[in-house]
Design brief:
The protein is mainly α. 81% of the residues lie in helices and 0% in strands. The chain contains 9 helices and no strands. Helix 2 packs across helix 5, helix 2 packs antiparallel against helix 7 and helix 4 crosses helix 5. Belongs to the binding-protein-dependent transport system permease family.
């Protein structure tokens, strides 16, 4: 009888969850778009900033070592604490949410970008110099393409992290699916509370899986077969 009870409870939960999604499809679509858009934009900005920083420091052993250490230590900063600090100058809403997420998105990519650029074979760089390429062209056309597989791995890690961390910006009235999760948990036991929290969590997982699949596809399209 106990097993039947559990099965019935599980089936009823699925039915209620499906009904909740159907009744709130429009708002769920909008929140999902907000969450995906915020995650994409912050990862993009964080990646560009990380690559620029890595390009500036990777030739300097001491500075690059300090950059690697700093990026790893910065990952231990509690995201809620940083978010709270950003509220003071920027208030509630999108701005502190964006800055916090872009900062954390940058950190995994910096480490991989520095490691990737430093691992480019010196003979390849010397060959590029030998044919008269300036330093900036060597970086763009030789070193970055060779380091790209390592950088892309950092971007994948960053993306998965940011899609999850983006849920907490609901604490500062930021956009995305976090509002569903926290509103549901705050009303646990009330009408549609469990369905709200479950739906937000499931949609975040789906966004993470879709982004990762797109990054895998990007890797197949942009990484030379000789480097994969």
């Amino acid at each position: 009888m106990r097993n039947v009870g559990y099965a019935t409870w599980g089936w009823e939960t699925i039915v209620q969850l499906w009904d909740y999604i159907g009744n709130n499809a429009r708002s769920l679509t909008f929140l999902t778009y907000q969450h995906a858009s915020l995650s994409f934009q912050t990862v993009l900005v964080g990646t560009l900033a990380a690559i620029v920083i890595a390009a500036l420091v990777y030739r300097l052993p001491l500075v690059s070592a300090l950059t690697l250490t700093s990026s790893r230590v910065a990952l231990t900063i509690p995201s809620l604490a940083l978010l709270a600090l950003l509220i003071v100058p920027f208030g509630l809403g999108v701005t502190p949410s964006f800055l916090m997420l872009a900062f954390f998105a940058m950190l995994p990519v910096i480490g991989n970008a520095v490691v990737g650029l430093r691992s480019v074979p010196p003979a390849v760089v010397e060959s590029a110099r030998g044919i008269g390429l300036p330093r900036w062209r060597i970086l763009l056309t030789v070193e970055l393409p060779i380091a790209w597989p390592v950088i892309l791995t950092g971007i994948r890690v960053s993306t998965q992290m940011i899609v999850g961390v983006a849920a907490i910006v609901a604490y500062v009235l930021g956009p995305g699916l976090g509002s569903l999760i926290f509103n549901g948990l705050a009303r646990l036991g009330g009408a549609n509370a469990l369905e709200s929290a479950l739906t937000g969590t499931i949609l975040i997982v789906i966004i993470a899986l879709v982004f990762d699949a797109l990054l895998v596809l990007l890797g197949r399209l942009t990484i030379s077969k000789g480097l994969s």
